[in-house]
UniProtKB/TrEMBL annotation:
Residues 39-100 form the HTH tetR-type domain. InterPro entries: Homeodomain-like_sf (IPR009057), HTH-type_TetR-like_transc_reg (IPR050109), HTH_TetR (IPR001647), MftR_C (IPR041347). It comes from the Bacteria. It comes from Mycobacteroides salmoniphilum. One of its GO terms (molecular function) is transcription cis-regulatory region binding. Keywords: DNA-binding, Transcription, Transcription regulation. Residues 63-82 bind DNA. This is Bacterial regulatory protein, tetR family. The lineage of its organism: Bacteria, Bacillati, Actinomycetota, Actinomycetes, Mycobacteriales. It holds the Pfam family TetR_N.
């Protein structure tokens, strides 16, 4: 059973994130004005969905009509862009994840893939993207439908990252354990730090430091348990 999260926490994240939802260029620079307008409308709808859900602490308390009204478009227009409220909220993460994949592809070809993944996760943890991820995770904890959509989306993103890791290492993930293992380990570090932020754990370090610590623990090996 998921513990209840006080509504005050949602209000805090709503204020912190107001119009700061990260978006990393879904649209190429050469796109025409019409495509730019469509992209801006889609992003605005996603922002509105996330803000309204954070404001009320529950996506179920938000209607499609309200999201559309916030952007001054029709409900039909909303449905042209998104199949559901959940898709609209999760779109706020798509640009973040696309950027993460691109960052991984841009890392030096001779860099160890584990170091490359650490650099990407550090980038996410030290940017406004982290706050967006925490906010969506909070909402998912209260909304089973959103959590289910998020899991499906994460699988898609993980497939792209796995393909890049496979390319860089020259290892087939269907034959060798390493590509999946290193991808899952990297996501586990970031996911753990996000979980700690969601639980408001009293940690003396910022997210970037925790990600760096997590990767170092993996390098050292988890068999050696630190003393409390």
């Amino acid at each position: 059973m998921t513990p209840d999260i006080p509504i005050e926490r949602f209000h805090f994240w709503k204020s912190f994130l107001k119009w700061k939802v990260c978006y990393y260029g879904h649209m190429p620079p050469t796109s025409g004005l019409r495509e730019q307008k469509k992209s801006e409308t889609k992003l605005a709808l996603s922002r509105a969905a996330l803000e309204l859900a954070l404001d009320r602490g529950d996506l179920a308390a938000v209607t499609v009509d309200e999201i559309a009204d916030a952007v001054r478009v029709s409900s039909r227009t909303f449905r042209n862009y998104f199949s559901s409220k959940e898709d609209a909220v999760l779109f706020s993460l798509r640009g973040i994840e696309d950027n993460a994949v691109e960052l991984l592809r841009q890392r030096p070809s001779d860099e160890h893939v584990f170091d490359s993944l650490e650099a990407v996760m550090l980038d996410l943890a030290t940017s406004e993207a982290f706050s967006t991820a925490v906010a969506v995770t909070r909402l998912s904890a209260q909304n089973p439908g959103l959590a289910a959509h998020d899991a499906a989306r994460s699988d898609d993103v993980g497939t792209v990252v796995l393909a890049e890791v496979s390319r860089r290492t020259g290892l087939d993930p269907e034959v060798d354990l390493y590509p999946r293992l290193v991808c899952n380990a990297a996501y586990a570090v970031l996911g753990t730090v996000i979980q700690l932020a969601v639980s408001d754990s009293a940690l003396p370090r910022d997210p970037g430091e925790l990600v760096a610590q997590g990767f170092q623990r993996l390098r050292d090996g988890l068999a050696d348990q630190p003393r409390g």
